[in-house]
Amino acid sequence: MKDLTGCGMRSSVGFLSRRELTGQPLMMEEFQRRRLAGCTSLYKKNMEGHFGCVNAIEFSNNGGEWLVSGGDDRRVLLWHMEKAIHSHSKPVKLKGEHLSNIFCLAFDSTNKRVFSGGNDEQVILHDVERRETLNVFLHIDAVYSLSVSPVNDNVFASSSDDGRVLIWDTREPSHGEPFCLASYPSAFHSVMFNPVEPRLLATANSKEGVGLWDIRKPRSSLLRYGGSMSLQSAMSVRFNSTGTQLLALRRRLPPVLYELHSRLPSFQFDNQGYFNSCTMKSCCFAGDKDQNRFSHLNW
């Protein structure tokens, strides 16, 4: 029998014939990976709805049926992905509108609520079904990143230009004082709960680099990534789906991969001509096994 890694695994006919012959249960995942790796042009479609730059997008959990987007036009738009791709369906505008640019978005685990934050120093909590505003959480400076707890949809973290990472509980009065996990003189650009160990959070700071925090031990990081180069300007950090690795973006340096409990990078993603220096950027893992890493930048 021919090797399954051949060209046949990039064609639908080849995939179906080999599945009939071998019956391997994981062949579909392998087929999808090889189709993606062999693509010379991926499908794309312009989704028009905003009146300015789009700064943040977020897919819904459990399959990405919905997409939420926000940007310089201060509006939060909700897209049904299948309808948006295969028809001329327009997005739905959530009623809560920001006073300035939107920088970050997050779904809760049920996809029934959306959090949005931005330059107007507030986080708005939206009801997806009714499109109404449920609550507003005021900050003292621009909000750059949001992350919802993987075990409690009422708890979310925000990182801000004022140098603080705050933990909020939506059940508490919005005018109450949130729990302060971290406080630095420099801005926090990114925060994320560990998806498996929710007591742990990762942050990216404009001068202090990438850090790991334990919610039980506020004000002092557990780990500063980067070894002797830990004092770097970091713009984004993301956990993989199992919470064992972190992907980070740093200013004027290539994207870097860390193991959860190791200060030193396990890999740096460098490429001739790659250079990031000016604007806020983001990164993420992708693929059914987090085998892909993406970074977004403005040249």
Give a structural overview.
- With 299 residues, the protein is mainly beta.
- The protein is globular.
- It has one domain: Methylamine Dehydrogenase, Chain H.
- It contains 3 helices and 22 strands.
What characteristics describe this protein?
single chain, 299 residues, mainly beta, Methylamine Dehydrogenase, Chain H, 4-stranded antiparallel β-sheet, 22 strands, disordered N terminus
Query: What's the domain count?
Result: 1
The CATH class, by name, is Mainly Beta
What is the rounded Rg? 21 Å
Total count of strands: 22
What share of the residues does DSSP label as strand, in percent?
35-45%
Name the average pLDDT: 85
Please report the distance between the alpha carbons of the first and last residues. Answer: 48 Å
